[in-house]
């Protein structure tokens, strides 16, 4: 039986994390067996990153008491090594393991490895566009799909990106991306951009001088009438 091993061809800057029994016993409290390899882990750390391991270690009493817990799912040992590294701050992802890492990360509800795998596909992967697209469609990586379609400049590019299947079988957001990009390539953007229409300032209608004068006179007469109603009639007669 082998220990979780280090890849022999790793450069010092990308050295594999060591999960073998040779590590300090204070740094692990559980042992997992994957494809005959033993990985020494901290149960709490795995549980924080995955509901699957939270249930395995802390809710499944029978398994949690075993000295060595065998993962029954079909999990390649090298993919599990990369999974452990991703949740421990490392990242040696490569195109050979990316799909298996994605598979177990989704199966175990582990968000951190999923996000790091998506970032790898966006920035570092050498997979051809169609291979990236198939992965993005499978795991609903919208950012990756948008990036892939942004690089489509011709119908030939679109043909190289899409696998041979019915368009209706794609996810709804993918169908929208296909339609919009083909319209843009064809010079038929939808919706058609509409230039904003400048509104003329409201017209200020000048008041004719005569009308203004008449209004002023009416106001003066009204005020004089108000004053006269409060005056003593005898005073008016004396004057």
UniProtKB/TrEMBL annotation:
BTB domain residues: 28-96
Family annotation (PROSITE patterns): BTB (PS50097)
Top-rank taxon, per record: Eukaryota
Transmembrane segments: none
InterPro entries per the UniProt record, alphabetical: BTB-MATH_domain_protein, BTB/POZ_dom, SKP1/BTB/POZ_sf
Pfam families according to UniProt: BTB (PF00651)
Protein name: BTB domain-containing protein
Organism: Caenorhabditis nigoni
Origin organism lineage: Eukaryota, Metazoa, Ecdysozoa, Nematoda, Chromadorea
């Amino acid at each position: 039986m082998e220990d979780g091993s280090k890849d022999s061809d790793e450069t010092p800057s990308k050295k594999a994390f060591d999960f073998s029994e040779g590590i300090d016993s204070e740094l692990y409290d559980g042992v997992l067996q994957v494809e005959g390899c033993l990985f020494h882990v901290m149960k709490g750390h795995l549980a924080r990153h995955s509901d699957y391991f939270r249930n395995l270690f802390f809710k499944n009493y029978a398994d949690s008491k075993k000295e060595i817990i065998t993962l029954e799912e079909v999990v390649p040992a090298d993919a599990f090594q990369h999974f452990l590294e991703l949740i421990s701050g490392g990242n040696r992802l490569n195109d050979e393991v990316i799909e298996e890492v994605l598979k177990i990360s989704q199966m175990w509800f582990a968000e951190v490895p999923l996000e790091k795998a998506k970032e790898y596909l966006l920035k570092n992967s050498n997979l051809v566009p169609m291979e990236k697209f198939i992965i993005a469609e499978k795991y609903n990586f919208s950012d990756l799909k948008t990036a892939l379609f942004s690089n489509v400049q011709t119908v030939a590019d679109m043909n190289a990106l899409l696998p041979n299947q019915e368009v209706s079988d794609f996810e709804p957001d993918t169908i929208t991306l296909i339609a919009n990009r083909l319209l843009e390539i064809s010079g038929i953007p939808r919706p058609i951009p509409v230039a904003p229409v400048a509104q003329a300032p409201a017209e200020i209608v000048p008041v004719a001088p005569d009308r203004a004068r008449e209004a002023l006179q009416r106001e003066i007469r009204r005020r004089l009438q108000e004053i006269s109603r409060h005056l003593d009639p005898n005073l008016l007669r004396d004057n």
